[in-house]
Amino acid sequence: MISIFRFVVLCLLCAAFQAHADDPRAREIMQQVEDRDDGDNRTSDMRMVLIDRKGNQRTREIQSYAKDFGEDTYRMMFFREPADVLGTGFLTYDYDDESRDDDQWLYLPALRKVKRIASQDKSGSFMGSDFNYSDMTSRNLSDYDFTLQKELPLGEHTVWVIEAIPRSEDVIDETGYKKSLLLVRQDSHVVVRAVHWTADGNKQRYFDTLSLDLIDGIWTPLEVTMTTKQGKQTLHKTAISFSNVKYNQDLDESLFTVRYLERDL
């Protein structure tokens, strides 16, 4: 009887260990991804193309700004075209302190209202795209267990393949993902491909960096896509391209405030 009890306990302990196993090498790589220089005082033009399952496209033109405030990064986006999204603004405070939830606000000109994005809403679609609100900020590394699965060639480069498992249901609820596979390019520490398993609907989202270039010594993605699939069927796709990317611009701090977002109210 005692031996059976010990066997059951051992099995439970092994299961618990496997559920929360964390690979120090994988975490070290993800920390290098987190610490990679991504520039400061950045401006760029963005083009977002929404593609439905029939291939129909909708295009949105956006101006984007980013500025570091100490260890935190603030980002502002303004939608310029088409007319139905003209004037829409999106502000994000991406905090380095992992004990703080990142703040996000969306200004909808049609409603003349600023909406703060609550944590429970961050798994929702960002402006009808395949990116959700949580995709618009960096992940807290302490929220995940990482496992280095293998290294493999990807085009002309070598990548690490890292599995990321959320450590709590709260993280799954906020991000909308129950598991991710991340492909990190070894020469740049940029995530160039990822697969996210959604928490509901049995869907997968495939993220790809199609174009990556050095601008002012900073590895900068210039074209990315996010594709939502169910099995082999593509349900929707979002393509984002960046142009006129500039760093070290003279950006006033007042640009990155809710008051500036509300300026047309």
TrEMBL record:
<keyword id="KW-0813">Transport</keyword>
<protein>
    <submittedName>
        <fullName>Outer membrane lipoprotein-sorting protein</fullName>
    </submittedName>
</protein>
<keyword id="KW-0653">Protein transport</keyword>
<keyword id="KW-0732">Signal</keyword>
<dbReference type="InterPro" id="IPR029046">
    <property type="entry name" value="LolA/LolB/LppX"/>
</dbReference>
<dbReference type="InterPro" id="IPR033399">
    <property type="entry name" value="TP_0789-like"/>
</dbReference>
<dbReference type="Pfam" id="PF17131">
    <property type="entry name" value="LolA_like"/>
</dbReference>
<feature type="domain" description="Uncharacterized protein TP-0789">
    <location>
        <begin position="72"/>
        <end position="263"/>
    </location>
</feature>
<comment type="subunit">
    <text>Monomer.</text>
</comment>
<dbReference type="GO" id="GO:0015031">
    <property type="term" value="P:protein transport"/>
</dbReference>
<feature type="signal peptide">
    <location>
        <begin position="1"/>
        <end position="21"/>
    </location>
</feature>
<keyword id="KW-0449">Lipoprotein</keyword>
